[in-house]
Structures are given as C-alpha cells and as structure tokens.
C-alpha cells in the first residue's frame, strides 16, 4: 500500500463530476426538463439550418450569420448536455483528464464566438438601416466568410490558453469537481499549485471579449435608434425596428442569462452552491433552444421556408 505522502502527490488521470452535491436525490427529475430543452434546441437549430440550406431565397448574408449562430449553439449543447444527462441517468460521473479540458476549451471559445456573432449581426442591422444604399456592397458573402474566420480565430486563439494553463497545473489527490461541467474555476481550485495567473487570464480575456462585443452592440443600436427616430413615416420606422426585433431579443436572452450567472457567482456566499451550477447548465440550453424559435416566429421568410420544408417532408 502506498504511503500517504505518495498518494497525495499521485497524478490525477480523471475527474469526478458531482452535480448538485446538496440535492443529488432529485437529479432524475431534473433530467426530464433538461432532456426536453436539449431536444428542442437540437431540433429547432437543425430545422433552421436545413431550411436556410434548401431555400434559395434565404441564401443571403443575414441568414448565413444566423446559420453560424445555430452551428455554435449545436456544438455548445452537444459539449455540455449529453455528459450531464449521462451523470443523471447512469451515474457516470467520471470524465477523462483530456476530455475535461477539451470541454473547457469549447465552452469558453464558443461562448465568446456567440457573443462576437451577435456583434457582427448588430453591425449587419446597422448598415441595413443607417446605410441601406450601401448594404448590398458592404454586407456580401465575402464579408460573411471573413467575419466567420474572424469569429473563430479571435475567440479560439485568445481562449485557448485557459484550458492549457489549467492542464499544466499539478493535480495531486483531489479530483472531485463540484459541478456538472468542467469550468475553469471548478477545476483549477483542485490544483495544489498557485492558480492566480490562470484565474486572472480568464477574467481579463473573458471580460475583454464579451465587454468589447457588448459595447459595439450598444453603439450599433444607439445609431440605429437615432436613425429610426429621424424617419418621419410611422410605418417605415416600425418596419425598420421590426427588422431588428428578433436580433435584439436574442441578445437579451444571451445577456440576461449570462448576467444572472455572473451575479450568482459573485454572491455565492449568500446563494446555495447548486444555483450557479443549474444556471450554468441552463445558459447552454435556453438561448440555443429559443434563438431559432424567435427567428422562425418573427421572420416571415424563415417561416415560409419552414412551411415549404414541412410540405416537402409530407410529400
């Protein structure tokens, strides 16, 4: 039998995810609404992608950006939810060292990619309303392709050090993560090394990326509102605002859930520890489930495309 000193420094090869440590008895009940939200998110985003792919009238830059958002939502859902349901249904709490840090990378990078995509969509609406005559020459297919490369490169490269820094830490004996997913904060606190730089890097990069996107989104919509209020025709103003309505609602979903998550983490001493864990999961489920539904309900072209797709399936 190994001595205590040796066992305390033995390297960790896997972690244990302990979801809701204070309320494990009702995990099976929680799995039902999570499963329904997961199926809704996957089905709605897949339907939206297929509709945009098959409907020629939707082959426009705005809908390509919406497709990018749906792809990001699908990847985020597949990264987080299946493992959570695996824990709930089969009590399979173990996750490999490499799989944990891969999940961490995807969650950090794709979350900021979504934020960046919202920012580019806000710019798209700004050009459409404030400079309508220039819109066809500015927002082109080439612009969308370059924007997609920018979204992936900026956020992928800047968030990649987060899981790399965490994976380089020494994990001695503790391997129990009191969370359903491998967040950087939950994992790094298990290390027997100093994690100050790790946490500082995530804080600076996270708030720089998300904060800059939010500032640019607010600026875009301030210019849009200024331009709309100058429109004397009441019908034209309502139509201009209508084109921004769906996008604004999506940003509201994304920002509200993220803001609530941040507040609960800051006030974790006054809030049960299971609440931030649940909100973290819902943040990867609620926006992906609602995003395609909002666009499908509010956008006539997408609604007509979905109706055509359903008629094709029937025939």
From TrEMBL:
InterPro entries: GPCR_Rhodpsn (IPR000276), GPCR_Rhodpsn_7TM (IPR017452), Olfact_rcpt (IPR000725), OR51/52/56-like (IPR050402). Keywords: G-protein coupled receptor, Membrane, Olfaction, Receptor, Sensory transduction, Transducer, Transmembrane, Transmembrane helix. The chain crosses the membrane at residues 30-50, 62-81, 101-123, 143-165, 204-228, 240-263, 275-297. It is a multi-pass membrane protein. GO terms for cellular component: plasma membrane. The gene is LOC102830888. This is Olfactory receptor 56A4-like. One of its GO terms (biological process) is cellular response to lipid. The keyword Chaperone does not apply. It comes from Chrysochloris asiatica (Cape golden mole). Its main location: membrane. It comes from the Eukaryota. PANTHER family: OLFACTORY RECEPTOR 56A5, OLFACTORY RECEPTOR 56B1-RELATED. One of its GO terms (molecular function) is olfactory receptor activity. Residues 44-295 form the G-protein coupled receptors family 1 profile domain. It is found in: Membrane. The keyword Membrane applies. The lineage of its organism: Eukaryota, Metazoa, Chordata, Craniata, Vertebrata. SUPFAM superfamilies: Family A G protein-coupled receptor-like.
């Amino acid at each position: 039998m190994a001595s205590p000193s040796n066992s305390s420094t033995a390297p960790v090869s896997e972690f244990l995810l302990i979801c809701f440590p204070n309320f494990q008895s009702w995990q099976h009940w929680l799995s039902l609404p999570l499963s329904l939200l997961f199926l809704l998110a996957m089905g709605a985003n897949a339907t939206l992608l297929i509709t945009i792919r098959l409907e020629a009238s939707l082959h426009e830059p705005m809908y390509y950006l919406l497709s990018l958002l749906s792809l990001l939502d699908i990847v985020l859902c597949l990264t987080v939810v299946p493992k959570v349901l695996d824990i709930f249904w089969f009590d399979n709490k173990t996750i490999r060292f490499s799989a944990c840090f891969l999940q961490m990378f995807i969650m950090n990078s794709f979350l900021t990619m979504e934020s960046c995509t919202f920012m580019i969509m806000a710019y798209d609406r700004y050009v459409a309303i404030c400079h309508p005559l220039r819109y066809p020459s500015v927002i082109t297919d080439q612009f969308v392709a370059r924007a997609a490369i920018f979204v992936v490169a900026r956020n992928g490269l800047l968030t990649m050090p987060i899981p790399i820094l965490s994976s380089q830490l020494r994990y001695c004996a503790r391997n129990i993560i009191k969370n359903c997913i491998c967040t950087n904060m939950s994992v790094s606190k298990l290390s027997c090394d100093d994690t100050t730089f790790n946490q500082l890097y995530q804080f600076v990069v996270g708030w720089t990326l998300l904060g800059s996107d939010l500032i640019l989104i607010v600026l875009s919509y301030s210019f849009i509102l200024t331009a709309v209020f100058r429109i004397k025709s009441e019908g034209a103003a309502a139509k201009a605002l209508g084109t921004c309505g769906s996008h604004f609602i999506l940003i509201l979903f994304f920002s509200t859930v993220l803001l609530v998550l941040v507040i609960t983490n800051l006030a974790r001493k006054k809030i049960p520890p299971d609440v931030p864990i649940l909100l973290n999961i819902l943040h990867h489920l609620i926006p992906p489930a609602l995003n395609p539904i909002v666009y499908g309900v509010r956008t006539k072209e997408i609604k007509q495309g979905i109706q055509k797709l359903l008629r094709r399936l029937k025939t």
